[in-house]
Amino acid sequence: MTGGFQVAVCGPARCTAAQAKQARRVGELLAARGVTVLCGGGPGVMAAVAAGARAAGGVVVGVLPGADRDDASPDLAVAVVTNQGQARNAILVQSADAVIAVGGSWGTLSEVALAMRRGGVPVVSLDGWRVLDQAGDPVPGLQLATSPEQAVALACSRSG
Questions:
Q1: What is the value of pTM for the model shown?
Q2: Which three-class secondary structure state does DSSP give residue 49?
């Protein structure tokens, strides 16, 4: 695999304080493992994971929805301008070896769905979406985590 292991961390721009704290910890833990963090590059969960990874000496790549870098998190090492709006979600999850969703919004749900459709990569939800089938049973594949440590362990289970 070229470029090392990459984990996309997704979550709402408007998150709770607890979700921001969890995302920051996820960033710290991923950086400690030498994982490249991918995120949407904006506020909320995205800014928190970027701050955590940067504080721990990690590399964070933001895949931005807009046409410029004006609103990008200051903790990004690299900002990729897509001018694709929410369609950038597909670019973000396609570039990842695993996906962690912290919290939930409609955009986050689209990222979870795109990652699940892709198949073959771990998809983890921390304090976020739980997807059920018509019978009310959990849809296979989406892994639920109860802590940042568990989320990172599940996401990195195939990193070698």
A1: 0.94
A2: helix
